[in-house]
Predict the 3D structure of the following.
Amino acid sequence: MEYIIHLLILISIWSILGVSLNLVVGYSGLMSVTHAAFFGTGAYATAILITKYNWNFFLTLIVSLAVSMGLSALFGLVLGKFKGDYYALISFGFNIIIFSLFLNWQELTRGPLGISGISRPEILSFSFSNNLHFLILVGCMSLIIFLVAEYVVNSSFGRVLMAIREDEQAISVFGYNTKVYKMIIFMISAGMAALAGSLFASYITFIDPSSFSLSESMFILAIVILGGLANNKGVFWGTVFLILLPEALRFVGFPTDIAAQMRQIVYGLLLLGLMMYRPEGLMGRYKL
Amino acid sequence: MDSIIPQLVVNSIIAGSIYSLVALGFNLIFGVTKLFNMAHGVVSAIGGYTVFFLFKKHGIDLYLAIPLAILFSGFMGYISEKFIFSHMRKKKASGMVMLVASLGLFTALQAVIAILFTSQFQTLSKNVGTTKIYEIYGGIITQTQLLILCSVILITLLLGLTIKFTRFGKAVKAINDDLEVARIVGIDTNRVIAKVFFIGSAIAGVAGIAIGFDTGIEPTMGMNLLFKGVIASIIGGVGNVYGGVFGAFLIAFIENFGIWKISGEWKDTIAFSVLILFLIFKPNGLFKRK
């Protein structure tokens, strides 16, 4: 039972990541592969504030979101100048730069040793230390994120985003400032990823840089592409599949580290196969 | 002369040589396909690991193992073009779709290597620390590194001459300019592109082997190497073969002198900051393609 709760918590956290990245990649057509940077920034903000300054988890969320969104505004400013392959390449670069900050800014992040002893959220002396309670918290958060994302993409704001994705020039002729739209959605998405990061840090109670590398960003991208670009429900199922896959492989008898590599093989080949035969993902509504 | 500068120069030259091998192949392939081939990095790792497999696991002579490994890397590149990228081109897949596909290929192959050879760091040279060492103006260079440098110069020259003087080279240049037109005037574009993939990947394989002998190989080495190659290409001007080599040495010098005063872990940060600055202020690179 504990094990199932654990998996459900992971699915909730990663579906926040997937849904938020889908806003950028799926709905706005911007190939950002730097999501783990925001995920990590959120996680580190919460971890540092809780362990060093004894803040309450819910208070750290404010800082976590603010820092990540500030960072994303900075990245967005640079990324806004580029399109296509170069956009992807620069987003890789940002992820690698942030990753090496986590790794090398030892005074703040304790580098490769990571930060341990992060406590679970507490509110009015009620602690979410029980995994079931934590699951309820994360589940609610991820549901809220899902609804917010659905609201955003169904609003007029979301329609402009999709128009930008289809033909940026055309929509800017109508007087929409496309740069502002792209920036806002990028920041919203980063804030959501930071929330996932804070939840992750306080759930695992220990974080180190390896969770926020470029391959993590690629994994989140794989979730989005597999599930379906511009389809939040599809992204949810993509998360379920890719989170459960290594567990299933382990269940069949592969050792843990091989199961982890097998997952890489499976999602690598899935990405490849999808790109060759179905570039919109399994349930997608938009072709890359 | 107790200064550190000669050593930094030597280090930069060695790093630059290896980066330029990756950049050469990347540029060649990008030139004809306009594809950001992420799988190019893993091909280097394949080269290194093939030597590891043949030479260290089965004791096959180095003079046989290295050429075999280079051919095998080239072959892997050829296969990826033949069975994946050529089909996607036929379907008119967008650059982004091909990029994600190559990313998928990269992820899968890298994991295969990790399963076959474990994720441990391995070195290719049998007797570490006994290679001959030369001193040039206070900078220390090993025999291996000298060999690497020589092979890079040789490969660059050979490639340059091939492109300039052979029919194949002319076909490559024609496809570089315009694939459709090249096809219309009767060039078998798919064959030329497949050959380019073979040559480019073989050169990337050389880079992987060189690293294996210089320091060591690990399954994840491909990503870092690829990015250095890509950064070098962009700085030099994408699709410009010599520009890529120049960019490789430039980035190697910036990296190695950058960590003169700060710790060595910041190398990647420096390299990517340079890339971003270049893309903002000089997006076409130093040498624009004519």
Observations:
- Chain A touches chain B at residues 31, 78, 81-82, 84-86, 88-90, 92-94, 96-97, 100-101, 103-104, 214-215, 218, 221-222, 225, 257-258, 261-262, 264-265, 267-276, 279, 287-288 (CB under 8 Å).
- The radius of gyration of chain A is 18 Å.
